[in-house]
Amino acid sequence: MKMIVSALFDSVGAIFNVVIVMVMVWLMFAILAINLLSGKSFYCSIDKYRYHTKFDCNVAGGSWRVFDSNYDNIFQAMLTLFIVSTLEGWPDIMLVSVDSTVQNEGPKIENATAYAYFYIIFILIGSFFLVNFFIGVLFMKYADAQKSEKKGFTPEHINWMALQRMVTEARVSHEKVNKPDGLFRAKLYRLVTSDAFDIFIMSNIILNMI
Question: Is the pTM of this model over 0.70?
Answer without folding.
Answer: no
